[in-house]
Amino acid sequence: MSTKFQRAKPQFVYQLRIELQHIEPLIWRRILVPDTVKLAKLDRIVQAAMGWTNSHLHEWLIEQRRYGLPNDDWDSKDLLDERRFTVGAVLGEQVQSFAYRYDFGDGWEHHIAVEQRLPVQDGHNDWAMCLAGENACPPEDVGGPPGYLHFLEAMRSPTHEQHAGYWRWWGGPFDPQGFSLNAVNMAIRKLR
């Protein structure tokens, strides 16, 4: 007799609004995430939704607790292993907002609001997806919010002393307003 491992069916879906802090105009995404998704998978979903490349360490700050992947290169003394916790277990019905930090060198901080906790409708909202968003994600390793503002200034001005260098580094023009809902959902779909 063989038994197959079956995933728990989601009961609820969280509608989350992710906002990248310290950048104007605001860079944001609205996503749906089933309650059965592990925090480690939510990391990958946020990465895909925002446009990050998962090249750096990260952590979650939820209800005065830190979650992430334990790592010897940084302070993970009180860090809870994100692979052991589902979104539903850590957010429940009470959590209204939490934080996600990415790339401790550049210091990207994200505020995530729990907009709604919705019942699952099979075949309609029982998988992770992006519903909306605005503005392009900054490039990886651009130097955090101040570095990104400098990058934008240089890219907009052909006479800027670093324009050609950034142009080569990025690979051409950069549209800070660029956001494609289709591209984001294709990236999220590849995670399934």
How would you sum up this structure, described in words?
With 192 residues, this protein is of the alpha+beta class. The protein has two domains: 138 residues, MM3350-like (Structural Genomics Hypothetical 15.5 Kd Protein In mrcA-pckA Intergenic Region, Chain A); 37 residues, no CATH class. The protein is built from five helices and eight strands. It has an eight-stranded mixed beta sheet with strand order 5-4-3-6-7-1-2-8. A hairpin with a 2-residue loop joins β3 and β4. The longest helix is centred in the C-terminal third of the chain and has 13 residues.
Overall pLDDT confidence: 93
Beta-strand content: 25-35%
- The outline comes out as globular
Question: How many H/I helices?
Answer: 5
Number of domains: 2
Topology-level CATH name of the largest domain: Structural Genomics Hypothetical 15.5 Kd Protein In mrcA-pckA Intergenic Region, Chain A
**H and E string:** EEHEEEHEEEHHH
User: Termini distance?
Assistant: 28 Å
Major beta sheet, strand line-up: 5-4-3-6-7-1-2-8
Major sheet characteristics: 8 strands, mixed
What class would the helix/strand composition place it in?
Answer: alpha+beta
The whole-angstrom Rg is 18 Å
- Name of the CATH class of the largest domain: Alpha Beta
Query: Are there runs of 5+ residues with pLDDT below 50, and where?
Result: none
Q: Give the number of DSSP strands.
A: 8
Helix fraction? Answer: 10-25%
The CATH architecture name of the largest domain reads Roll
Provide the CATH superfamily of the largest domain: MM3350-like
